[in-house]
Amino acid sequence: MKFAKISQVAHYAPEQVVTNDDLAQIMDTSDEWISSRTGIKKRHISHHESTSDLATSVALDLLKKSGISAQDLDFIIVATITPDSLMPSTAARVQANIGANEAFAYDLVAACSGFVFALSTAEKLISSGAYQKGLVIGSETLSKVVDWSDRGTAVLFGDGAGGVLLESTSDQHFLAEIQKTDGSRGESLTSCLMGLQSPFAQTEDDEKYLTMDGRAIFDFAIRDVAQSIKDTIEASPLEVDEIDYFLLHQANDRILNKIAKKLGVSRDKIPANMMEYGNTSAASIPILLSECVEQGLVKLDGSQKILLSGFGGGLTWGTLIVTI
Ligand code: ACO
Q: A cellular component term (GO) from this record (predicted)?
């Protein structure tokens, strides 16, 4: 039998850091408002690098750290809601940039659940026995879809990328998963609505910028996502206290507090880095995972059980429990 395992992690963020105080210079907001409601203190904002540039940096770092060549890769999946273009895909650009000539590549669009959905898909590609090695990357330049005149959303998001190398192995590392979508609630978080535009039809639903019903998303996260995490643990061979770390989408520290309470888990087991990056959508979980490895919390030696949970636009939410 074939199984898949995460064998390397990496992340990258643009150099420019924008603090809450910097934002207060250009809009009617304050560090106190932003940090008390969200935990966010700063975010990285890209000056000249595109989503595929950020993803390429992660891909090159993954190759370097793992000592494999780009030619060894069978596939590249990039989870993103801020591609450089719909065609070619961001993943195709990364494939060209790193010279992964044997790899097929495509983007996966599931907003802040994108990395978890992509990792689940990649695990199936490998455990089917058809493929041996692939990159799964979450990469976003949300700064280009944020409405910078809307303080209610502009302060929440940032740019960055993170990813993993997934490889074939002979023992089971993916222990349980649940993935969900509720399109009937999709209007509460939207971006880049594309109306019809032709000599024959013009529709009104053209809206480039990200829109959000903050309260609805907050309630969704603490109700549906917390329940889904509980259900995934129940479907796994583990008890909640056997999970070493819960790496959750980094939207808001208050959401993490509420989920911790619902799960009966100490916040020490739910690390956060939204204070440094803001919400980077599909990139937030792999950036956090990579930082946890850098800090020695997560070891990549097969000794730990990690829960990954993403939630966001769609609405979508998904949880994976892996040995890492
Ligand atoms: N600075 C100062 N004041 C602000 C700002 C700001 N940046 N943004 C909004 N306000 C004001 C509003 O205008 C409003 O003023 P009013 O009472 O005079 O009308 C007041 O603050 C309260 O606004 P609310 O939107 O009701 O603020 P709330 O307490 O709900 O907090 C927040 C907003 C932080 C977005 C919250 O709803 C939340 O955390 N939602 C979760 C959604 C989330 O994190 N989304 C991230 C993307 S989605 C995802 O990743 C899943």
A: cytoplasm
Pocket lining: 225 vs ligand 1, CB cutoff 6 Å: no
Please tell me the distance from the alpha carbon of residue 308 to that of residue 64, in angstroms, as a whole number: 25
Q: What is the DSSP letter of 222?
A: I
Rounded to the nearest 10 degrees, what angle do helices 253-263 and 31-38 cross at? 20
Is residue 78 helix, strand or coil?
strand
Asked about 292 being catalytic, the answer comes back as no
Structure tokens at 2: 């074939």
Give the pLDDT band (50/70/90) at residue 112: very high
Going by the DSSP 8-state scheme, the letter that residue 46 receives in this structure is: -
What is this structure's pTM? 0.96
Nearest to 174 by CA among 290, 319, 75, 301: 319
> Are 20 and 158 spatial neighbours (Cβ–Cβ below 8 Å)?
no
Using alpha carbons, list the distances in angstroms from residue 315 to 6, 119, 133, 208, 280.
27, 18, 30, 18, 17
How far is the C-alpha of 192 from the C-alpha of 300, rounded, in Å?
37
134 backbone dihedrals φ, ψ, rounded to 5°: -155, 155
> 300: CA distance to ligand 1 center in Å?
37
